[in-house]
Design goal:
The protein is of the alpha+beta class. It has two helices and two strands, in the order βαβα.
Length: 54
């Protein structure tokens, strides 16, 4: 099993920060991102975070 799995927790609707983090991950064709914790909060980017996670 050579899959890379990245865990990201407690995003709290910070869409721009999440995109920056994802862009910095050394991803391969078989890599996966798993979100744990809270995706949304009262932040403006909560809708975009949910769309990205789906």
């Amino acid at each position: 099993m050579n899959d890379q799995i990245y865990l990201i927790g407690d995003v709290y609707g910070c869409y721009k920060t999440l995109c920056t983090l994802i862009d910095r991950l050394p991803r391969g064709a078989d890599s996966k991102i798993c979100f744990v914790g809270d995706l949304i909060d009262r932040s403006e980017g909560s809708f975009e975070v949910v769309q990205l996670a789906m």
